[in-house]
Amino acid sequence: MLAIIGGSGLTKLSTLAVAHREVVRTPYGEPSSALLYGQIAGRDAVFLARHGHGHTIPPHRVNYRANLWALKNRGATAVLAVASVGGIRTTGAGELVVPHQLVDYTHSRETTFFEGGDQQVVHVDFTHPYTPELRAKCLAAGAAAGILLTDGGVYGAVQGPRLETAAEVDRLERDGVTLVGMTGMPEAALARELDLPYAAICVVVNHAAGRGDSAAAISMEGIARVLQTGMGNVRRLLDHVAPRI
Ligand code: HPA
Fold this sequence. Notes:
By secondary structure, the chain is of the alpha/beta class. It has helices spanning 64-73, 132-145, 166-174, 187-193, 220-241, and strands at residues 2-6, 17-22, 35-40, 43-49, 78-87, 96-98, 101-104, 149-151, 154-157, 179-181, 198-207.
C-alpha cells in the first residue's frame, strides 16, 4: 500500500477516496494526524498530514518516529513525501523536483528507532537516501502524465521554523545544496531504518533567502500562491504514480 505524507499545502488529498480514518497509537507517541485510508486511481493508499490536519505542528515538533512507525505498522510498502521547499539553484517557482541526495542540518530531533539499551547497535546504510526505484517510478509517472519534473536535487534539511539568512543560504550552496526545507530529516532516515522505500516530491515555492525575488525578504503571500498551483500538480502526479506502486 502506498503511503503519502502531505506537507504544507497538502493537508487533504482530493484525489483520495477516503474509506475510513484511524487514530494510531505507537510506542513513540501520537502521529501528526489520523491516518486516512482510501484509494487513489483505484489503488489502496494511506495519507498522513505531517503538520496535522489543521496545520498546527511546526517542523521541529513533528513526531517523525510515530508517523513512520504508524505507516509501516499499518501496511505501507512505500512512502512518498510531499514537501514545499525554497529553491537555491532551482529558480522556477512551482517547479516539482524529485531530489536524489540530502544534507542534514537539523538538530534536537528524535532521529532513530535504534536507541541502544537492550537493542543491538544498528547503523543503516544511507548512501542513497531516496530509494532509486521509487524515484524512477515518480519520474516515469510525470513523463507519462505530461507533468514536468526535475530529476535530481540536493535537499538541505534545516531546523526552522524561521527561514534562513542570506549567508546561510550561501553556505548551503557551497555545500552543494539546491533545495532547502525543514521536514526532510529525520523522516527519510527513519523510513530507511524501517526498510520502507522512500522518495520525495518537492514543490519549489520561493527563491531561498537573499536570492532572486527573495533578495530583500521572502513573501508569504507569494508562497501561498505558488503552493496552491504546485500542489494541484502534485495531486495529478499522485494519480499517475499510484498505479505504478
Ligand atoms: N527555507 C526553508 N524551508 C522552506 C523554504 C525556505 O526558503 N520554503 C519552503 N520551505
